[in-house]
Amino acid sequence: MEYKDYYKTLGVEKTASADEIKKSYRKLAKKYHPDLNSGDEKAAEKLKEINEAYEVLGDKDKRQKYDQFGSNYDFAGGQNFDPSQYGYDFSGFGGNGSSYTYTSSGDGGGFSDFFNMFFGGGGFGGSSSSSRSQRDIFSGFGGRSKPQRQKYDTEISISLKEAYEGAKKVLNLNVNGESKTLDVKIPKGILPGKKIKTKGEKIGLDGDIYIKINVIDQKNRLDGLNIIKEVDVYPWTAALGDKTVVDTLEGKIKVNIPKGIQTGKKIRLSNKGFRDMKGNKGDLYLEIKIKNPEKLSKKQLELYEELKATM
Questions:
Q1: So what's the pLDDT on residue 307?
Q2: What pLDDT, in 10s, does the model give residues 214-234?
Q3: Residue 56 pLDDT more than 50?
Q4: Are 154 and 171 a contacting pair, CB within 8 Å?
Q5: How many beta carbons lie within 10 A of that of residue 6, not counting itself?
Q6: Which of 31, 46, 78, 105 sits in a 20 to 30 Å window from 8, CA-based?
Q7: Are 18 and 63 within 8 A, CB to CB?
């Protein structure tokens, strides 16, 4: 089995803070998101690896257990190892050592043998019993855990608008080689990182399913409850001022662009940001980006030459 270096996958040091890990994950998830890489199988596989790495390093307990395992056995990233040499029973993962994986629409889904081996008790695919409980493999490397309700973790990516308005999504899961479909209701105002809990009995699982919410949006970024939105304006608009129409989560609005505004400056629109599940609402900040037209007519070029001569 291949040892997974999750720190290398996310491009961070082992000493990275939780914020640094989250920042790197968001950057990579955006880079390899299906919306930007339609039909690219390599990008899809890379996104799966990134999601798996963040599933571990983005969770305090999982990260601690993963770090403990790595330090105890001093594995190098990518090094192959035989789990049975370290006292772990891998027979529960199918007749020939194959792992059970899951996929979820929209989030790149799919966990590796390595993940399922050590976190199988908390994710889709792990067997519930073996000569050594997979749920305590990292907990002191031995001992028995008290019987508890099974917990399954997965995640899903949605747009900012879906998080704001609420949505209905479908997760296609592959559990122990069996395809299952789960209908998920996204509540209005859910924030990134929050989890939706649903009973696994709905799809024949004994336990609860926790669905972590990722919000990926190419045009807006969330800062608390505030939304930062880039707005392109032409040089003459920035110099002379004008009105422009922008999309908000509640529809299109007309906004005044003040004279002489510079790239990077922000226009604040009060109470036009994100509204959470408690009804609290942030502001919308329009971040100005001065953009030159791709093509200029002869007359426009002449005007630019005249302007240049006056500077």
A1: 83
A2: 998 878 889 999 999 999 999
A3: yes
A4: yes
A5: 26
A6: 105
A7: no
